[in-house]
Amino acid sequence: MSEAALRERIKELVVQCLFLDVEPSSINDGDNLMEVHGVDSVNLFEIVVALEEDYGISFADEDFDVETFSTVGSIAELVERKQAEDGR
Amino acid sequence: MEFESGGFTLRGVVHRPVQEPPVAGIVFVHPFAEEKKSSYRVFVEMARAAADAGCGVLRFDFRGCGDSEGLFEEAGPEAWRGDLRRAFSLAKETFGAPRMGLLGLRLGAALAAELAEEELELAFLLLWEPVAEGERYLSLTMRRSMLRRKLTEHEGGEALAEEEEEEAGEVDFDGYLVPAEIQRQIAEIDLLAESKAYPGPTLVLNLSGRSKVAPAVEKLASRYVSGEAQAVRQEPIWSTVGLVDATPTITASLEWLRKTLGLRLP
């Protein structure tokens, strides 16, 4: 999956898990999800679980850093890193 | 109502339909710890809707939970299985309904699914976002707590004494300190391990923002002879702070009951 496609998929998950009534494409890669879209620990967790299911990856405890999950761009970087670690 | 189970007085609420006897009786099985508190109102709304549709409903609290006697830290799934058997038996007597069912949420759904394997008089089974694998449930719940803690710390909140809890073998489930023994009992739950003997109609609802059924839910439904999985677009009613509109979940459940049991819809 290309980097752009990954980011679009993450935006779709954000819209689904937050029950947002916006087009995924309206979310900017650098938007702070907590400040701009009201992501809290409950729906951030839903996003984490969805990413693990969709991409067959497992986040480690040390991955759970607020900054890492703050934007679509930073989440995409983490997913790519986890996929590389798993040899995907 | 009050009843005895294992030397403890358990307390619950009975919802009766206008017309007696009920066309069916349903025992509601609540989830674990903070998830029970979050979903309390949804259970009330579902019970009232089911009563309007002609069902009798028993909502009750396991020992160590809610209004029932006992200490939370001394209870757990092993004790609650006995509580549920007792509640189901009592509900059969209370309602005198031709069909009896179970409706459970999260860990409550797991306990309902377990009882279904041995309860010959069970006519239908509704599982709302069931905990299919206890170990994964523990892992996810601890991670969610950690995520919440980190967000709270990030916002300037007070950090929890995590190390002290770990030393005692307890873990923090959103404010509930869960002893190692309860963790062990939860970890033993595995609904996916083998095919289910329960032959009756079974609905497994996957409650999330996603439009497709999660693989684990699909797998669980396929374990049943008459299992059906549905994805319902629903906020997590078990972990959301504040009131949640559970209309999608209640509507899907009532529609399935109507189709399965021939109930009238409210």
What would you say this structure looks like, in words?
The complex is a heterodimer of chains A (88) and B (266). Chain A is an all-alpha fold. Chain A has one domain (3-85): ACP-like (Non-ribosomal Peptide Synthetase Peptidyl Carrier Protein, Chain A, Orthogonal Bundle). Chain A contains 4 helices and no strands. Chain B has 266 residues and is an alpha/beta fold. Chain B contains 8 helices and 10 strands. In chain B, the strands form 2 sheets. An 8-stranded mixed beta sheet of chain B has the order 1-2-4-3-5-6-9-10, with helices on both faces. In chain B, strand 9 (201-208), helix 7 and strand 10 (226-233) form a beta-alpha-beta unit.
Radius of gyration of chain B: 18 Å
Q: Name the CATH homologous superfamily of chain A.
A: ACP-like
CATH domain class name of chain A: Mainly Alpha
What average pLDDT do the residues of chain B reach? 91
CATH top level of the largest domain in chain B? Alpha Beta
Strand order of the largest sheet of chain B: 1-2-4-3-5-6-9-10
Total domain count of chain A: 1
Number of H- or I-type helical stretches of chain A: 4
What's the SSE pattern of chain A?
Answer: HHHH
Largest interface: A-B, 23 and 22 residues
Q: Roughly what fraction of the amino acids of chain B lie in strands? A: 15-25%
Query: Structural class, judged by helices and strands of chain B?
Result: alpha/beta
Brief synopsis:
The complex is a heterodimer of chains A (88) and B (266). Chain A has 88 residues and is mostly helical.
Brief descriptors of the model:
heterodimer, A: about 90 residues, 4 helices, B: about 270 residues, alpha/beta, Rossmann fold, 2 domains, 10 strands, about 20% strand
